[in-house]
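queue> pop job 88
queue> type: inverse folding (structure -> sequence)
queue> payload:
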């Protein structure tokens, strides 16, 4: 019986050196985070009424510049009720293109290898984070269970609140925080 050379075996757990060489992860929500909704309604309220048409949501100021910049510096992963299975379908990519002006080709690059249900914590790769991979979670509002989970993991500072329906410039403000935290280049031209 031949014994395998253990030096050539691949570990299933990411090595810290492998994690250090990867881009940080940006977990991204859609409703109220990169899409604004009229008259102070939240994305969920708006979607209940206008789910089929998507005619009143509008891309947040700065989203057309932010997404290409973020794709350059982060591995963006969806963490939104739009993509509980981890990716948008082609219709979703096309809707986002119409609403934001960001090419569907860019939206197609955003995939979360994990899925989640109502609690988005399930869509975060905690093994990577425990191995040292940096991440940011851009979200309009966390559930109390989600806040408790990230507090217990000592990563509450990775959550950046961004609600463009309340404050149209929230995405710009979040972008500034992300740039400073990760010491990243790039101009932010607030219009």
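queue> result:
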């Amino acid at each position: 019986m031949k014994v395998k050379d253990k030096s050539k075996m691949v570990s299933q757990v990411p090595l810290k050196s492998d994690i250090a060489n990867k881009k940080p992860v940006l977990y991204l929500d859609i409703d109220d985070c990169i899409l604004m909704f009229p008259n102070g309604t939240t994305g969920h309220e708006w979607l209940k009424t206008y789910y089929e048409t998507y005619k009143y949501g509008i891309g947040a100021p700065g989203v057309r510049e932010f997404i290409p910049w973020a794709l350059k510096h982060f591995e963006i992963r969806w963490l939104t009720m739009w993509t509980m299975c981890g990716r948008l379908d082609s219709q979703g990519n096309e809707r986002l293109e119409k609403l934001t002006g960001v090419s569907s080709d860019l939206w197609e690059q955003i995939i979360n290898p994990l899925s989640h249900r109502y609690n988005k914590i399930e869509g975060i790769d905690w093994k990577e984070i425990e191995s040292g991979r940096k991440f940011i979670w851009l979200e309009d509002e966390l559930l109390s269970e989600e806040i408790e989970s990230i507090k217990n993991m000592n990563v509450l500072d990775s959550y950046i609140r961004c609600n463009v329906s309340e404050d149209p410039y929230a995405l710009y403000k979040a972008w500034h925080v992300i740039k400073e935290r990760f010491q990243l280049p790039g101009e932010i031209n607030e219009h």
